[in-house]
Amino acid sequence: MQFGIFSVSDITRDPVSGETPSEAERIDGILKIAVKAEEVGLDVFAIGEHHNPPFFSSSPTTLLSHIAALTERLIVTTATTLITTNDPVRIAEEYAMLQHLSKGRMDLMLGRGNTAPVYPWFGQDIRQGLPLALEHYNLLHRLWREDVVDWEGEFRTPLQGFTSTPRPLDDVPPFVWHGSIRTPEIAEQAAFYGNGYFANHIFWPTSHSKRLVDFYRQRFEHYGHGTRKQAIVGLGGHAYIAKRSQDAVSEFRPYFNEAPVYGHGPSLEEFTQGTPLSVGSPQEVIDKTLTFHDAFGDYQRQMFLIDHAGMPLKMVLNQLDLLGEEVVPVLRKELAARRDPESADAPTHASLVKAKYGDGPARQPRPNANRGDNVTGASPYQDSDAAAEYPEI
């Protein structure tokens, strides 16, 4: 079981102090948060992808590769990589590079995002959001597994004899999670490929997320990747922790009331009762998180949002201390005791390499520009005017 934190990268006014951090302060702060996550014993750090204010994470691979360089064992990943508006060729290249730079300490979560204007900014039509998500991942899946790809689809120019570089580390593609809060087609796609399914599990009652997770597990088994118990499931969550529950409520209330995604709706008490939001003492957060296992059974990754809505860095770092010292160790022990021995472990690069090669050596692709693609040896200049200009090729 992996535990971690994720950030949506918002730059929001602190409702208590009235101060709004600069982009530079917020970016520097997220580095400190990620490093702290490793220090307190967490396994995973994730960042979202946004291309509009008030968010800063427009280039998650750049940020995550820097975090990987600052840490030793932390898995870096995305809370959303926009599969709709990013070119799958660029995703293949950038995340393979991140995989090499992090020595395999990475994976990624694909999603459609929740910002409508991003589609025309990147030349896409939001009305095609679901077909884009499905077609783009189908191509990405091939780019990481086939050295030479011929492809034609609806939403981008065709590819002929294309090799994405760098090739995945050890010729093992990064593990992919498909994230969705409402779309069964995304759960179906995750199941078809044997990938992970991540339910954000913040805004909706547990019963809503459970329907999608149960559907994914059923389809995972249908496609022959293993039993329902062996399906790879991740859950989000939002927690605010204090030594005493009354302090947690009073400290978190102003941030909840003004939060862009929570504020001006149901009260904190109503939201805590009706959704997975956890606000309270360490034991109360432990108890609430254990109800996730009651509903979903064994799952492989639990992520917490802890830096949202203008919360100052000092308060976030304190949350990490409480999460790492008092909450996660108990959850690890309790969930390990409940774990069915047939359930799958959380995937890592090492486990994926082991599954592909056993005890044998991993393949190390060596594409050579002077011989064209790295399988057929066809020249990139073959049958072109360039062949006369470069006769040695």
Automatic annotation (TrEMBL):
Recorded GO CC terms: cytosol
Coiled coil start-end: none
Oxidoreductase found in the keyword field: yes
Keyword Chloroplast: no
Every Luciferase-like domain range: 1-297
Residue span of region Disordered: 337-393
An example molecular function term from Gene Ontology annotations: monooxygenase activity
A Pfam family it matches: Bac_luciferase
PANTHER family assigned to the protein according to its UniProt record, in alphabetical order: BLR5498 PROTEIN (PTHR30137:SF8), LUCIFERASE-LIKE MONOOXYGENASE (PTHR30137)
Protein name in UniProt: FMN-dependent luciferase-like monooxygenase
